[in-house]
Amino acid sequence: MTIALLDGSLKVGVFFDKGDHEFEDNICICFKENCPEEEKILYAGETNIYITPEQARELASMLIDAADQSSHATR
To answer: Its domain of life (predicted)?
Structure first.
């Protein structure tokens, strides 16, 4: 699953890495940037962060909480 951010110049993908199934941190958050060098926010064109299922759930919960707060603030 991938989402495009920053007018499409940053793509964030999240997936279970089957090749790392034996490791606890086998959920990958993949950041890919496609923009001029001076506009990059990361050093590499692709950066992967591996997290555990518990961390993934906590991150998802934090995102939902922030989205809920934003929705309530704009009413």
So the answer is: Bacteria
DSSP bridge pairs for 50 = 28
Q: pLDDT tens per residue, the chain (75 residues)?
A: 899 999 999 999 999 999 999 999 999 999 999 988 888 888 888 999 999 999 999 999 999 999 999 988 866
Give the single-character DSSP code of 42. S
Query: H or E stretch including 53?
Result: helix 53-73
Q: Rounded CA gap, 17 and 27, in Å?
A: 6
| Per-domain residue ranges of the chain | 2-73
Give residue 19's region: left, alpha or beta (phi > 0; psi -120 to 50): alpha
Euclidean distance between the first and final Cα of the chain, in Å?
30
